[in-house]
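Collaborator request, handled under Task 6.
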Amino acid sequence: MSLKPSTLLVGTDPKEWFRGKTAAKFLSDEAATMGGKIKVKVGKVEAYKEGSVGWGIANPTITLPNGKDFQPRWSAVLRKETGRWKIVQIHASVGVPNEQLLA
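Structure tokens returned to the collaborator:
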């Protein structure tokens, strides 16, 4: 993940909106909180690149330590920095049916 101030992470919780080094720290802290016991099945991935920019989407299944599964929608934009691909924008959301959202 890029540590530049323009990097953006938007998570599933409305309060999860982080930039730069804070985004990387958030991901590290989340992993530590879960004790490394999260299981991820990547599922379908689509990825593309043009020059020094790449983007992708995925629909993984994540199993939490308590056994609960959920399937977020994930997208990211990457940029090549000093020869390595770094995430500069990442977004995760959990789909809610329109009927439920509007009820």
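The cover message to the collaborator said: "The mean pLDDT is 93. The chain has one domain: 8-93. Please let us know whether this matches your experimental observations."
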